[in-house]
Amino acid sequence: AQLLELGELHPRVSPDSALARALAGALPAAYASLASASDPSDAACARDGGATLDAVATILDGARWLWTGAGFAASRHVAKHSPADLAPYLHGVPAELASRGALLDALGVRDAFEPMDFFEAANRLAKDSNASGAEDSNASSTGTSTPKYTAFILE
Fold this sequence. Notes:
Blueprint: H1 2-9, H2 18-37, H3 43-48, H4 51-60, E1 64-67, E2 72-74, E3 78-81, E4 91-92, H5 101-106, E5 110-112, H6 115-128, H7 150-154
Parallel strand pairs: 3-4, 3-5
Antiparallel strand pairs: 1-2
């Protein structure tokens, strides 16, 4: 519940701020506690059969819970293997969490991004920069427009 609240309050944080340093210092213990819930050799996990982790996964589904060093991101915007950190839209798993593969899997972090993730990130960037989005501003003679990036992404 604390991760959920922190993520809602701090989607973006200046990486050089005192808050970022405090979160970076405190969150490894929270993630370690979550990781023990995903470890079958842990006594508590063995007792409840993973029910605690299932409940956590349900609560965090779609929420910003994963600290990136500059804010919190939802699982769908984080991948274990990312070609680049495309903050604030797509993020690689922070080094501090890279060894927590079982936890990341249980909480919906994917191995890699799909092409559509990059397309959606580009659309969000365009929207955030008050651009016209991914639609071609020059409508065709039929009066319809086609997404600029579709051919590139789907090839």
